[in-house]
Write a structure and sequence with these properties.
This protein is α/β, with parallel strands linked by helices. The two termini are 72 Å apart.
């Protein structure tokens, strides 16, 4: 079964090519490079000796570059099914073979046959050779021996041929042909449109729609609509499905590969039992299931611990990164436990103790590389006693200085025996050496491992069961000829190596001893802590290049010239594509040499024989004396084969003869060809070097005869691991599922990795150790597999190794079972006891963290890598070794350590030691101790990054939760009320409260109107006063409030003190009732004066004033009005109170009430789906149909009123419940009985009555809905009017109470008179109206009170806060600092916040700089961040209770609580501040007016020009707002009271920065060597700056870059830290006070343009400061030179100043020295910022102004697109070192630009796009002017035109619906469809518009298409 399925899979794969479709993309997924980074490679095979200091080769080095080549090899080589198909090569006996195959029969014949069943299924092809031996499917065996069953299937080839013949006619339609069909459909549809006007019903049978194709033609498509992208994706998916259908290989295999639950075998259970009892090393073959034993052991230990109610912590150690992921996954799947996985690439090196602690608490099993465990043990983050079970995978590594060994010796053996974890080791060979010389030698080596791991080796005694489960492969030895040496080429490359090395030495400043570097000092694994160095010089490039040259030389010798050429070309290509190529010298240096090598090796590989003499047969036989069955195990037979000169193979004979390919490679190709027809062929070729793994797949790709192979490389990794790991996993996954059939692998595939069982394993290079031999053989796990060893003919070392390996394996097994007695060896050194910790360690007592000689070097490197640096500085320790000769021939060494110039100390001498390595370790150990004492290391012995509290706090927040201090972190806070408003007097009248004698303060509200209005109602308002229990602060009375009452009028409101009053209790009770009645109507909250709760926290009352002048405040109150309103019976009628719907039990939400209660989305949704619409839908106060009102008895019975057609009197009108004089009615408020809505009465219209015809809607052309007003009321409300002849009342809706504090009206540029005074009127029959008890003027005046009181309440809070802070600052300024921009008022805190932010940063920077002279800039920056970060400021604000004082929301009267009238919060409540007018009775068209209809009133309920508000329901503050307010308060205090005031506020808030000069003595003058002082031109620098330095040492430091060798001078980083803050503060202050009226956003832009590195860099160049920079980087030199040249070009343009937005990017260093010089001047002048400004103001001239401020093109384009509702998208690609950015607007490419830097490319592309858009706009304007009014054509009013056609033809309105909505948030796209139901032809087809960025545009696009179709069918439409 398996065979057949796989065969047909091969056929299916071939189908991909011949089908003519695109090859399925996954063939190219082998190792894709997404260009996002480089992959590192374990390049340990290169001999590093004699190389210049390679300890710093980072991920950009050779490792990374070779790794990128991997992608090109695995990516550009076509898989076999895509190769040109050549006829299969017959595996006939006449194929000449250069290599000889010698069979070693390691297994019985039955075992290798796979049983009888296998024989039935297989055909064995027998080809007799002339010597009587037979070829069995291409492999030769001795004919006298029983044949080994072979698994070759000839049917595979036959089927392939059959398929090839038949595939031509099975080819599916190509995509372009499919397009032709589609186009033909379209043409056909259009033709019928033209001929018959288009019969839509006919097409309905097919189903389809109309849309535009790419050329803009309208075409018809069959089926339902899909977006273009979906259509393509679907097509691809169908193609893929077709291939999978034809290729049954995939599905069965997927099922096969699914891991089934493995049953434990007996031998595994035996080992497990021993492991439970004692520490054990499981010695079992690869594939024997050691991991399963480990998993069962974890489960067993966990179960035991659960019984004791303890949590397990098991640590599973692996030697290589890929195994971390693999083993973690296995344990997760099998146990379900919480498993963590950790390796260097996941960033754990930077975790702190808290982060680790959370891992230990939350996980049960930790899978990690040994180095990670070693690190956390050394830093005392984890203690050995906390671990319960320690598992070591591939534990044979525990030797010498391997992390396994160090974990055991440093921590396990030093832990008391009772506290040690259980240990379980796993290995395929306990000895990892070339072999064992004797049984005793073997015993010693095993005993050493056991001692190290404190364990006993355990193996399987009875091998028969093991062999049942782990089949052994057939071992075959293949010999090949020695390659001819290409001396001349080798010598030339060697010569280049020498040259390069000399260059390196001459350009380097290091001595010979320094070159030995850390590479020799500590183990390589320890130095993986060094995280890469960026800038490289020629010497660094040389080290890299020498490795490359050696790799090429190796390829030349081992693989041949052609392979070496391929390697060289790959190296060169990667180098040229490196984006650093432009400015890194080492890249240029390497490129020049590699070009020479490529030219030297250039050649082509061609197939064909070497000579024309025909094909000779090669001799391949064994002499009779040495037949296979007579050969003893371990012996190598003599072999005979053709000599080197006779390579006449038809495949690559010519190449071998020329030396382009070696005989070894030829032999490999031969071996592979033997498996050409093998079913389910899966093979691994093991090579020693990465180069071979990379280049061999290229060789196979060039040979058509090997087209049956799909090959990829699999290599280890060293740097940039993340990409490497994912690539490895990907490659292995493809190998498992058969997309790759051959892996060329380095040692990475030998151990541990879970790779599919293979049937062929080839050792191209012999293994180096017995272990590698055993492990690689274990990869051939399938029954009947082959293990092929390639050895060089006559190479004794190869033969010896093979013999040794076989013997050693047997010896090891025997020893593990029988155990040799070693008691006589006790005294001999060879038997090592466990290493105890070397005496030389440094331990921190408080934590137990430890650094030893072993780890000190790595720790010092790690420390240096964490120092602040840029890409030009190489921050690493340097070692100078000195040799000391002692009498008696003894040599000792000492080491001097040089740290980078920004470390707390630069030099340290180490003690005398016996070796270089120990000398280096000793000085590093001393350095670690000193760094810890100086505070550079924490107590965990990790580099101190500044105080770590903030990071820890941040990490405590659950993932996904917004961090405190950010805008997304929001919390609820109660609204603050000023304590002065508190008053118990408000409770008077309640039991126990007799406060009638309290004195109250009366303040009149004075309003002055500025501007004019034609609306009389706005000026007809009553006067009010407010009663308070306490006297208000004078600042409150001096405050003027702007109330935005109308578009053309602002009212200035203020409070005027009227005097104090004492009320009697009855008076106070009446005033309270009046206040409640008035505010309940104004705020629309139904409360009763007798029951409403009063809160003494907010005690004040609104009282009406008389219009006349008064002397006594008590007389000023309008008592008559109070009495009238309080005592009227009208309040008994719920229709007259607020919210009558609640009383009637017909809550608006159940009927579909207004937007506030219902929520706009739900409302729209309800309408869309045909719910019955309530007649008063969406109107505030709407209650129910008229019969509900009637039934409630709220109106007198209308049935008793006789219907009358006569109207009697002009003076009186019959209302719903009374008769009234007409003159009393005008100006009053009436309530409409049928709807509950209220109206101001404007006038009585005698010329109109209920029998007048009802007007149409504006623009409506259809039939009349209602014949008259009476008809309208009957149909819509069920009301029969009784007085039809009565004149109608003209009224205006009573609007909601509005927020008058924020400017509500848009300032449109063209404001015509008509728009300014647009008034909305309605007409009402008097008999449906009730007179409301409140006069109109009173309500209008009262509607201003909430806004006035909101401002007074805010101001009182500001006064209260001012009193708390105790520093005299105007309260109005404090209110400004407390008001957020989201309030949309006329002031906010943003300007002050900008200033406060800069001041705070400045003060804190100086404080930290002076307090911590030892800390470097990175630590200072982090410490500053922790003192001024939003998170910290937010905490300060909370501690001081600022949340109660802040005004953060736009004022919403409906949510405002007046005393006695509390707001009602409904779910979904959303404030809408709209004027609501009754729409039922539209006016005639004589007045300026607008009519409303039930359908559209929902959308149009806003006053014309009023900006829509958006305020949430509750007081929610973001924590960023709190932090911003702290900065704004600092800013306000700084402006009002200078530094003293600002510092006072900072101390009050809790920011402790005491800048008392006495506390910080000025730093001592710098002690700088005389030689350096002489080298600096002080006169010139001071001349350029126009300042004299007192301490010139500061200036030297300010111009010294970190790349300069340290010689007692620190680099400028600390000064830059101070200077940055000083300049930021000075420039911000200058801009703030210069541009006082600039809006905050513009001020922020101005500051960003002035304070940025690009701008400072241009200042440096302009004043030639760059010329004095002291640095040691040639790359930096080159970049500065280029930048200076670009700047000169920039400045030559007239009037040019881009303020940091120029076209060339500055080296950051130039901006930094401007800041560091500012810092130096500041410190040199006793911290006087004024002197810095005096020096820098002329330097910075001309400074940016609002007029010269450029907007960043990216931002400008974004804002423009947002305004135009256009979709903006950027697409970035990188080719080599050039980034290309394209700009798309609405899917159309508008701009494009290229630049080495992606950000710069984006900026240039945006600028280009803006130029194009501006040109288009200018052209369009010109066209419009030429065409006059043409603009009002189809394009603009498409939907309106379509609606008009439907009205004229009396069709229903068009139906639109959204067919697609997608894309990212910033580039949303909508696609709409439209169709119309025509009366004569039924429904039209759907017309689908183009994707558009807004719904309106999408509907327009669809409508345009439908109009085109209708115009064809109905030409008269035109």
């Amino acid at each position: 079964m398996g065979g057949d399925s796989t065969l047909s899979g091969v056929v299916g794969d071939a189908a991909t090519l011949v089908s003519g479709g695109d090859p399925v993309s996954y063939w190219f997924d082998v190792c894709e490079d997404d260009g996002s980074g480089l992959c590192g490679i374990d390049f340990s095979d290169f001999d590093p000796s004699a190389l210049p200091s390679l300890d710093h080769t980072d991920e950009e080095g050779l490792l990374g570059e070779i790794d990128r080549i991997l992608d090109s090899i695995n990516g550009d080589q076509l898989p076999s099914s895509l190769m040109p198909l050549s006829p299969p090569v017959e595996p006939a006996s006449n194929v000449p073979v250069a290599a000889e195959l010698v069979v070693q029969q390691c297994l019985s014949v039955e075992n290798s046959c796979g049983g009888d069943g296998a024989k039935d299924r297989r055909e064995v092809v027998k080809l007799e050779d002339k010597d009587g031996s037979a070829w069995n499917g291409g492999r030769k065996y001795n004919s006298t021996k029983e044949k080994v069953c072979d698994r070759r299937d000839e049917r595979g080839a036959n089927r392939r041929d059959r398929y090839r013949e038949s595939s031509a006619w099975r080819r599916p339609r190509r995509p372009d042909e499919a397009g032709d069909w589609r186009r033909r459909d379209g043409e056909w549809g259009r033709k019928r449109e033209r001929d018959g006007g288009g019969e839509w019903r006919e097409r309905d049978s097919r189903g389809g729609y109309w849309e535009r194709d790419k050329s803009g033609k309208v075409i018809f498509r069959v089926g339902s609509w899909e977006s273009g992208a979906n259509r393509e994706a679907k097509k691809t998916k169908l193609d893929n499905a077709e291939q999978v259908r034809r290729s049954p290989e995939k599905r069965p295999q997927e099922k096969r590969e699914k891991p089934t639950e493995e049953q434990a075998r007996q031998y595994q259970l035996d080992v497990l039992e021993q492991a439970k009892m004692r520490n054990t090393i499981a010695f079992l073959e690869t594939g024997a299931g050691k991991t399963l034993i480990a998993v069962m052991l974890i489960q067993s230990v966990c179960t035991e611990m659960l019984k004791e109610n303890r949590k397990i912590l098991a640590v599973f150690l692996v030697p290589k990164v890929p195994l971390v992921y693999q083993q973690a996954e296995v344990i997760r799947e099998r146990t379900g436990y919480k498993v963590g996985h950790y390796c260097g690439e996941t960033g754990q090196d930077f975790w702190d103790a808290r982060r680790w602690q959370r891992e230990f608490e939350s996980k049960q099993v930790l899978v990690m590389t040994a180095q990670i465990l070693l690190n956390i043990l050394r830093h005392s983050i984890l203690k050995m006693e906390s671990i319960n079970l320690l598992i070591l995978d591939e534990c044979h590594h525990a030797v010498k200085k391997h992390p396994y060994s160090l974990v055991m010796s440093e921590f396990y053996h030093t832990t008391s025996k009772d506290n040690r974890p259980a240990v379980f080791g796993m290995t395929a060979s306990p000895v990892n050496l070339k072999g064992v010389s004797s049984q005793e030698d073997c015993a010693i080596k095993i005993r050493n491992l056991e001692t190290k791991l404190d364990s006993i080796v355990c193996t399987v005694k009875d091998r028969r069961e093991l062999e049942k489960h782990v089949p052994m492969p057939l071992e075959i030895v293949v010999q090949y000829d020695k390659a001819a040496v290409l001396w001349s080429l080798h010598e030339k490359i060697k010569q280049m190596e020498v040259e390069v090395e000399q260059t390196a030495h001459s350009s380097s400043r290091k001595s010979k001893w320094q070159f030995m570097g850390a590479r020799d000092a500590g183990s390589k694994d320890e130095l993986r802590l060094v995280y890469g160095v960026s800038e490289r010089t020629e010497s660094d490039g040389a080290a890299n290049l020498i490795q490359k040259l050696r790799a090429i030389n190796y390829a030349l010798g081992e693989l041949g010239q052609w392979c070496a050429y391929k390697v060289a070309v790959s190296f060169l290509t990667v180098l040229q594509n490196d984006e650093r190529a432009n400015y890194q010298l080492d890249v240029k240096f390497q490129e020049s040499y590699l070009k020479k090598v490529v030219a030297l090796l250039q050649c082509q590989l061609s197939e064909g024989a070497a000579n024309g003499n025909g094909v000779k047969d090669a001799d391949m036989h064994l002499s009779d004396a040495q037949k296979a069955d007579e050969i003893e195990e371990g012996e190598l037979p003599n072999s005979h084969a053709v000599s080197g000169g006779e390579h006449v193979d038809v495949i690559i004979g010519a190449a071998v003869a020329d030396g382009k390919v070696t005989p070894k490679v030829q032999a490999l190709i031969k071996i592979l060809l033997k498996y050409q027809h093998t079913e389910d062929f899966h093979a691994i070729i093991f090579v020693e070097r990465v180069v071979a793994a990379l280049v061999l797949p290229k060789v196979f790709a060039e040979l058509p005869s090997l087209s049956f192979i799909k090959c990829a490389s699999l290599i280890g990794h060293n740097n940039n691991q993340e990409m490497r790991t994912s690539q490895m996993q990907d490659t292995i996954a493809q190998f498992r599922d058969g997309r790759i059939t051959l892996l060329v692998a380095t040692s990475v595939a030998e151990e541990g990795l879970d790779i599919r069982q293979c049937n062929v394993v080839i050792r191209f290079d012999l293994a180096k150790t017995v272990l590698a031999y055993i492990q690689s053989r274990g990869r051939a796990r399938k029954p009947g597999s082959d293990y092929i060893l390639m050895i060089e003919r006559g190479n004794l070392s190869h033969e010896t190794f093979l013999r040794n390996a076989r013997n050693s394996e047997e010896t090891l097994r025997k020893e593990a079972i029988e155990r040799t007695d070693l008691s006589h060896l006790k005294d001999i050194q060879r038997l090592s006891s466990a290493d105890t910790l070397s005496g030389s360690v440094y331990q921190v007592q408080s934590t137990g963290a430890i650094v030893s000689l072993n780890s000190a070097v790595g720790l010092v490197h790690f420390y240096c890598s964490q120092l602040p640096s840029d890409r030009y500085s190489i921050l690493r320790p340097e070692f100078i070794i000195q040799r000391h000769e002692r009498p008696g021939g003894l040599t000792e060494y000492s080491c001097k350590l040089q740290l980078p110039c920004n470390a707390p100390f630069q030099q340290l001498e180490g003690p005398l030691c016996c070796s270089i390595r120990i000398a280096q370790q000793a000085v590093c150990l001393a350095a670690c101790k000193k760094l810890h004492e100086m505070g550079a290391f924490t107590d965990m012995l990790l580099p101190d990054k500044g105080s770590g509290e903030e990071g820890e706090k941040a990490e405590q927040v659950d993932e996904g939760d917004p961090l405190p201090g950010t805008a997304r972190h929001r919390e609820f806070y109660p609204e603050g009320v000023a304590t002065i408003l508190r008053g118990e007097w408000i409770l008077s009248g309640k039991e126990g409260c007799n406060n009638s004698e309290d004195e109250l303060y009366m303040y009149a509200v004075k309003c002055d109107d500025i501007g004019t209005t034609k609306d009389p109602f706005l000026t007809q308002v009553s006067n009010f006063a407010i009663l308070f229990g306490s006297e208000l602060d004078a600042e409150v009375l001096s405050m003027m409030m702007d109330l935005f009452v109308a578009r053309t009028m602002i009212t200035k409101a203020s409070l005027v003190f009227q005097g104090t009053i004492k009320f009697v209790e009855t008076q106070l009770a009446a005033l309270k009732s009046f206040h409640v009645r008035l505010m309940s109507i104004v705020l629309d909250v139904d409360v009763d004066p007798s029951t409403t709760p009063w809160d003494p926290a907010k005690a004040y009352l609104f009282v009406p004033l008389i219009a006349e002048k008064y002397h006594n405040p008590l007389e000023g109150i309008d008592w008559c009005l109070v009495e009238k309103i309080v005592e009227t019976n009208s309040w008994n009628n719920p229709l007259q109170r607020a919210r009558p719907d609640v009383y009637l039990g017909t809550n608006e939400r159940t009927l579909g009430g207004d937007r506030r209660e219902y929520g706009f989305g739900k409302l729209r949704h309800g309408m869309a789906f045909g719910h019955k619409v309530h007649p008063t839908y969406g109107i505030r106060g709407a209650i129910a149909q008229f019969d509900v009102v009637k039934a409630s008895g709220l109106l007198p019975s209308r049935d008793s009123i006789e219907p009358t057609d006569v109207y009697h009197s002009k003076e009186k009108l019959q209302l719903a419940d009374s008769c009234i004089d007409v003159q009393d009615l005008v100006g009053r408020i009436v309530t409409a009985a049928h709807s509950g809505k209220r109206f101001y009465v404007d006038s009585v219209r005698y010329e109109m009555n209920a029998e007048n015809s009802f007007p149409r809607k504006e623009g409506y052309l259809g039939p009349l809905e209602y014949s008259s007003y009476a008809d309208y009321y009957r149909q819509k409300y069920g009301v029969d009017l009784r007085h039809k002849k009565q004149p109608l009342i003209r009224g205006r809706g009573v609007s909601y109470c509005k927020n008058l504090l924020s400017p509500r009206f848009e300032h449109s540029e063209v404001e015509n008179e008509e728009n300014l005074d647009k008034t909305y009127y309605v007409y009402l029959p008097p008999e449906l109206c009730l007179i409301h008890p409140l006069p109109g003027a009173l309500v209008r005046g009262a509607q201003r009170l909430p806004s006035i009181m909101r401002r007074i309440e805010s101001m009182l809070l500001a006064v209260q806060l001012k009193d708390m802070i105790r520093y005299p600052v105007p309260a109005m300024r404090i209110l400004e600092a407390l008001t957020a921009a989201s309030c949309q008022e006329t002031f906010c805190y943003e300007r002050a916040e900008l200033l406060g932010d800069a001041y705070l940063k400045w003060v804190v920077s100086i404080f930290l700089f002076l307090k911590y002279p030892q800390k470097h800039e990175g630590q200072l920056t982090r410490m500053r961040q922790q003192m001024v970060s939003n998170m910290v400021l937010y905490q300060y604000a909370l501690n001081k209770g600022l949340q109660s004082y802040i005004q953060a929301d736009r004022f919403a009267p409906s949510r405002w609580a007046a005393p006695g009238v509390l707001p009602v919060f409904d779910e979904d409540s959303k404030e809408t501040e709209y004027s609501i007018f009754d729409e039922e009775c539209p006016a005639t068209e004589t007045e300026p007016q607008k009519d409303f209809y039930a359908d559209d009133c929902i959308e149009n309920m806003r006053e014309d020009g009023e900006v829509e508000s958006d305020s949430s329901c509750y007081r929610v503050l973001s924590s960023k707002t709190l932090a911003d307010v702290v900065e704004a308060l600092i800013g306000v205090y700084y402006v009002e009271g200078g530094e003293n005031a600002a510092n006072h506020l900072m101390r009050w808030i809790g920011i402790q920065v005491d800048l008392d000069p006495k506390d910080f003595p000025c730093p001592k003058p710098y002690n700088i060597p005389e030689s350096i002082m002489r080298s600096v031109d002080f006169e010139a620098i001071e001349g350029a700056l126009n300042v004299k330095f007192k301490d010139r040492g500061l200036l030297v430091e300010a111009i010294t870059h970190a790349s300069r060798p340290s010689s007692g001078v620190s680099c400028y980083q600390r000064l830059e830290f101070v200077g940055d803050a000083v300049l930021d503060h000075l420039i911000t202050k200058h801009l703030f006070f210069t541009y006082t009226n600039l809006p905050p956003g513009r001020l922020t832009d101005l500051r960003a343009a002035a304070v940025n590195n690009e701008n400072f860099a241009r200042v440096a160049v302009k004043h030639k400061l760059h010329a004095y920079l002291r640095h040691g980087s040639s790359a930096l030199e080159a970049q500065i030179r280029d930048f200076v040249k670009d700047i000169q070009d920039e400045l030559s343009k007239e009037g040019f100043n881009y303020f940091g937005l120029g076209d060339c990017k500055a080296p950051k260093v130039l901006g930094d020295i401007v800041e560091s010089i500012a810092g130096a001047i500041f410190l040199d002048n006793e911290r006087d910022a004024f002197i810095v400004w005096k020096v820098f103001q002329p330097l910075l001239h001309p400074m940016v102004t609002p007029e010269t401020l450029p907007m960043h093109p990216v931002r400008e384009l974004q804002e423009r697109c947002q305004q135009q509702a256009e979709g903006l998208e950027y697409k970035a690609t990188r080719t080599g070192n050039i980034a290309t950015v394209e700009v798309f607007i609405d899917g159309v490419q508008i701009g494009i630009a290229q630049n080495p830097q992606k950000k710069m490319a984006q900026k240039l592309a945006a600028r280009n796009a803006l130029v194009v858009l501006k040109e288009k706009e200018e052209n369009a304007m010109t066209k419009d002017m030429d065409n006059g009014e043409k603009k009002n054509g189809v394009q603009i009013f498409t939907r309106q035109t379509l609606n008009d056609i439907c009205l004229r033809r009396q069709w229903p309105m068009p139906q639109y619906h959204c067919v697609n909505e997608g894309g990212p948030a910033h580039a949303k796209r909508f696609v709409y469809a439209v169709r119309v139901n025509t009366s004569d032809r039924g429904w039209t087809d759907e017309c689908i518009g183009e994707p558009m960025p807004s719904v309106k545009k999408a509907k327009d696009s669809a409508a345009t298409l439908l109009l085109e179709l209708l115009n064809r069918c109905y030409p008269d439409n035109r």
